[in-house]
Structures
1.
Amino acid sequence: MTAATRSPSAHPVLRSIACLLCGALFALCTWQVLARGQLFRWDEELSDGMRAAAPPRAAAELLSDIGNMTVALPVLAAAMVLALWLTRGRGWRPVLCYASAMVVMALIVAGVKSWTDRTGPMGGGGFYPSGHAATTTVALGGALLLVAAWLSRALLVVAWAGVVVLSLGNGLGLVWRGYHWPLDVAASWCLSVLLLCSAAALARRGPPRTSRRTPRRASPPAASSPPPSDSSA
């Protein structure tokens, strides 16, 4: 069975629904931060409760560090190299798509941070959305999507569970340590899913194929059978 036939990509309709839903949630979170709405106030109350129930500092700090560039980006880079090696250099399109998703994520996060300029739990500005949470999800999710076609179904389920657990743990660590509000992290998750779904759709859309049909050769005319001889002559 080839890698292409084992590709576990989601149905295009489900992918579109995920993109629309996550885009709408990201817009809602951004609006609430700008307007300081009810969701904004609930967010600060939830943060206080989460920090009060935080685990030991060392564990929370370790989880928050997953989103560091020196941790998440090497994972994505290794998956890119592996994907190119497995495809003998022909898999450049997915590599380019997921690399672009990371770049677009960084640009959007920087732009929205500057626009909203939300104060962090410990002071300062520019905390919405969380760059660490987005980096973790896009890097780990993109890395898995790059090599997913070569994994068995059981291993793929375990790998996706690992990505979800690490992304969730990173987000919790950021809130527990007071580096971000919960809404900062949730918005970054929505943005990350939106970018990963878009990158997956572009990665599967190959270049247009040109038709190279060889002209059919004219079949030789069938040999005509000789006329029957007149034996009565």
Note: Confidence is low (pLDDT under 50) at residues 1-9, 207-215, 229-233.
2.
Amino acid sequence: MSVDLEWVAVLRHGQSTGNVAREEAESAGADVIDIAERDADVPLTELGREQAEAAGELFAGHPPDLVVTSTYRRAWDTARLATPDGVAIVPDERLRDRELGVLDLLTSHGVRERWPDELRRKRRLGKFYYRPPGGESWADVVLRLRSLLHELSAEHAGQRVLLAAHEMTVFALRYLLEGLPEPDLLRAADATEVPNGSVTSWERDRDGGFTMVLAQEVGHLHATDTPPTADDDAARQLS
């Protein structure tokens, strides 16, 4: 697609209490992840806040023109902590995490035990187009991000835009900005870890396409002695 932006980057939110709970549930072989809040309200951990602040050091020297954030608390709080003074932060629900419907709060073991028919349906459809009941497919996420990029391109042409969002956002943007075919995208996703607080960015080429210039960068975390963290979040684990 044609995108008239100079630079696009994704800052994955810092570590959240949901990330920690998911790791604990998976390690214990539990069926259900113990999270009291709805997904939109899951907060950052203290480490997650430190990761977001470390990202702010990265952007201080060359700030974006605009920050657009997922409306989920963990991403919005990350944006607030990482955004340099004077840069506008705009929330947009199209950047929310992928919705999992009936698979929400289930571990990999829980999905296998409780929804074996859905796993068979996913294998038949392929994970790009598979949509769990009440949830979204990868293609659904791509469609809403396509809409957002079109709007940003029209209203902020030639500008540098930072998206504070989720792991799934990185893969969706590879599809949209780099034009990766579905098989290549899924292979890349299977082989790619997107740490909390990492930055992935693309610059516009002379021909109007985009090239990735930072791939899940965590150098700013190491520079501030902030431990990076990663988990097999819902974008990969249950898709």
Note: The domain at 7-236 is CATH 3.40.50.1240 (Rossmann fold).
3.
Amino acid sequence: MSMFVALLHSIVLTPDRRVIMEDLRALAEELGYREPRTLVSTGNLVFEADEMRPHELEVALEEGFEEKFGKHVDIIVRSDCTWMALCSTNPFRDGSGDQVIVRVMRLPVDPAKVEALKPLMAEGQRIAVVGGDLWIDFAGKPSQSKLLSALTTKRLGVGTMRNWNTVCGLAEMIM
């Protein structure tokens, strides 16, 4: 048995309806996963499952989510070991926990696509690719940055963003 972290790209079903975390935990249980737990209300799930490849879990969760909620949502799954490895690679530990964000990718981000982001960066902002994931230090509120709106699936591939505080919170849940 292993522990996994699942990150939903979105929990918004319609403009006036979001998936509540109780329903997300129920979905995980329906799929046979054990001890599902959530962190904050933004689609962060930790659970135990038999030894499976993360991609198999992504497919099962995405199909289950679509069947239960009527909408496809990209879901990224990492094993506990790969999550802890991601935590150890933050290149911007000197940044603020709510301003340092990692875009956790399903497949490694294309370095050429990262280069194309650089003209959108403001003074003080930093980006780095580590282990295929894109790390960004917004050096201010991400919502006030031109860079944020460019970090899309269409531009970069399937992935989802979490700030450093959330990354650490999930790590604490699996320790």
Note: The radius of gyration is 16 Å.
4.
Amino acid sequence: MPTYRDEVVVLRTHKLGEADRILTLLSRRNGKIRAVAKGVRRTSSKFGSRLEPFMVADVQLAKGRNLDIVQQAESLGSYGADIVANYDVYTTASAMVETADRLNEAEATPQQYLLLVGGLRSLARGEHPERSVLDSYLLRAMALSGWAPGLTECARCGTVGDHDYFLPQLGGVICSTCAPAGSPRVARDTVDMLRALMAGEWETIDAAPGRTTAAASGLVAAYAQFHLERGIRSLPHLESYR
């Protein structure tokens, strides 16, 4: 039975039988992987705690007909305990792994893996507000999937400038000429915040006032869910998105 090694993030798990689990993994080199971890739910399991959601591990897998089989697992990032200790951090991380799980195989690239690992690490360490970590992750994940929002030029006509409208269904900021009648205006500092989130300019992001952060979050959520074609189930449970 051929085997291979890869670095993975555990996205979700499902019970199988009395002692096994089915894992959905985002890997660094092999895209998304579905695998069985046999005996992982037994207290005697050597690597059960390393294969919980939000954990990052170096795994050896054996190729299977329908599901691969986890043979070994070594921890690379034990983020789960710190994440589940705080409800808002947990729901933020849940939204991130849910988004990663929506990726199709062509989109599950090494860059997506590294982006998710960086986001989970930041959440576990409390480096930035969880809402901003999620917003930055969602924008970048969309961009890596080919859905980068237009933030410096009109998404319809390409005119460069500071535009006053942002419409998810049209691809980003829209100039006054292209904006449909009745479109709501967006404050300039909100668009600046979106640009900072996309670029990872954390000094700017962390210093932004709450109203700007909240306004940008609403636009990011609308944009991501429009392009994912269905809602992110974890978002309504996150206090900052209610």
Note: The chain has a mean pLDDT of 91.
